[in-house]
Amino acid sequence: MPVAPLPPDQLRRPCNPRALDFKTTADLDPLEGVLGQGRAVAAVRFGVGMPHPGYNIFALGPPGTGKRSVIRHFLSERAQGRPAPSDWVYVHRFDDPHRPQALRLPPGKGRGLRQDMDDLIATLKVVIPASFESEEYQTRRAAIDEEYKERQDHAFRELGDRAKTEGIALLRTPTGFAFAPLKESGDEVLPPDEFAKLGDKTQKQIEAKVSRFHDELAGIIRQVPQWKREAQEQVEALDRETTQAAVRHPFEDLLARYGAQPEVTAYLKAVEEDLLDHADLFKGDEKPVSVMGITLGRKGGDEGLSRYRVNLLVDHDDEPGAPVVEEDNPTYANLVGRIEHQAQMGALLTDFTLIKPGALHRANGGYLVLDARKILTQPFAWEGLKRALTAREIRTESLGQALSLISTVSLEPEPIPLDVKVVLLGERFIYYLLAELDPEFAELFKIEADFDERMGRDPEDETLFARLLAGLARREGLRPFHNKAVAAVIEQAARWAGDQDKLSTRFGQILDLLREADFLAGEEGGKTVKEGHVVAAIQARRERAGRIRERLLEATENGVLRIETDGVAVGQINGLAVTQLGDEPFGHPSRISARVWQGKGELIDIERQVKMGGAIHSKGVLILAGYLGGQYAQRQPLSLSASLVFEQNYGGVDGDSASSTELYVLLSALTGLALRQDLAVTGSIDQHGRVQAIGGANEKIEGFFALCQRRGLTGKQGVLIPASNVRHLMLRADVVKAVAKGRFHIYPIETVGQGIELLTGVAAGAADDEGRYPEDTVHGKAQAALARFLAQARAQSRGHKEEGGNPAPIVPPVEGDDTQGSKS
């Protein structure tokens, strides 16, 4: 029984505006919650609430399905019910400057500690200099200096007096001390010439005395540094005492304020102890610059006081709950933080005040949202995130340190404990690749929140969808949408979903359509968005992306690309393909041809041979070969060879949607039966000849319809599609209208037999008990042609054995005109 074309009501499922029960979206209550994502919402809710490590979330699905909005909603809701996490600060570690100390404080207290330390520094800059300038300090310091000087002077004076009693004078010279003999009067030094006149015995006696006093002088001189050290120790003790008295009151206040925080009080005591040894930093005198033990120059003023400041890394003073952080640029440094450097005197220097936080620091105690593709494309960022989640701590270090590429002196900040819930947003293939290739991924991201791009389409769903559109329009400040306009959006959502009984949940794409329709309504000065505005917006989107489609149509119409839409031809047929460029896919016909000859069952896929065919297309051709073998080679060899090709294809081909088309053209070439050129074909097959569903049915039909429309609809033209694709049809209104007028036809095909009968006008045929087909059927003619091939091959084989030689080529009989485009 011939296949009947589909009636118009099966080509598109309209949305009845009357069933929506509202005039405009202004009459609707916006939908609260998420539509069409029950599975994903349940996964997100579970993952957000799960407190154990490793239950991080990977939200997977196509872009525009509302993943980010759903995640934001649940994270914000959960974060508001949790307490704000601790503040974190870095401070100088006085016993090990290379390893800054991390301090945890209650939320909001970090800023207070930083301000308290700044105030303390400001106070000590006044108090300490004033203490050292006080009369008491100056008097005690002068007494120490005087005592040291008196002790030194007394020693030299006592030595001089004893030397004088023995006739020797102790003289002070510009180069130091010297001894000289005195005259008998004891008041003047004996001149050298008079000393020379003295007898040898007297001279030796004087020289012995001078030598003895030189030794005593040397002993005194050796004692002077010791006396000086003792005096310096007294000065240092006085300075510590003075400093301690000056800082006692400010530190008592601070210790009382932070008494409930042992780590902070221990740090404050360490600061106080260090201040006693470095009070000179507050005196304003220039002192040597020493960075981590390396002396580079001299400095004074506030630069040396940074050791007492507080680096506020994370501040939660203004946050009512747990933080929700979205990092748009997840580089390694932006995740784990960084250590900055400053150039001073030709060297790059750093200290704990130059440690900067990353997204993990800011999200610690809360939630971190990352784009999976972005973090995977940043060098070492993915490894840095996994290391932090596995160790449950944030270790801030440069990439050079982490990879052991540098050995220069740097900081090693104390790691900060990490408690964060990470949510990755990405497409499905990224999730499946990570699950397959990264053994740590499954341990760290246990929650899979799979966002579907489609939802159901029953009357209740359409009402909810309308409320969703009302909410989107209200949130975006758009005009109210008339119920017919909403119906048009719903129909377009079904088309985007590729199913009459489904609606697309790519709400980003739907929102764009609402905005564009609203803009067109505004251009006309309308107060509401009507159906015509939505239809115009859809058409405008199609036109904006239509350059390539129009060029292909022009090339086909002008004969540059050979596609026939009338007549019959042997071994040639119109296949259908879909091209995806941007967001607007389009279909276009492609000529497929086949040639057959006597052979040994070899089926040549030219696309595969030249490496222009994908694996799925090659699979379709092999399935086709399986069908031929099962259909015709049960009792005899398949004694043919054939070639298949997509003519004028220069960009490659993939997919198995042309396998039925290739089978039809192969049967035509084998039997000589001409195929109708006013029909285009799509559909894959299995090895038993059943036609299976394909993708892009709407675009493929509309692509062939556009070409036929340009050349003029004859009333015979149409498309063969798999019957299982009927539910996917949401064709444009102009195609449905042409079908309703009988100017274009769409045939649902279930088997290869139905398709070949429609294309050739000849019955496919059924086999008898012995596997033979009637001679006047397609299968019978194919069986006969194969039998002739086999007989000729056997005759040739006998002839070669007896006489040798080359037989004439074998050509199958042809029924009908095989000229491209001839009339039937």
Total domain modules: 4
Main-sheet strand order equals: 24-25-23-22-27-30-31
Intertermini distance: 22 Å
Category from helices, strands and their pairing: alpha/beta
Strand fraction = 15-25%
pLDDT < 50 stretches:
291-300, 807-824
Describe the structure.
The chain has 824 residues and is of the alpha/beta class. The chain is built from 26 helices and 31 strands. It folds into four domains: 8-32 and 454-544, Helicase, Ruva Protein, domain 3 (Orthogonal Bundle); 37-84 and 323-451, 3-Layer(aba) Sandwich (Rossmann fold); 86-318, no CATH class; 562-793, 2-Layer Sandwich (Ribosomal Protein S5, domain 2). The strands form eleven sheets. Strands 24-25-23-22-27-30-31 form a seven-stranded mixed sheet, with helices on both faces. Strands 9-14-17-1-18 form a five-stranded parallel sheet. The relative contact order is 0.10.
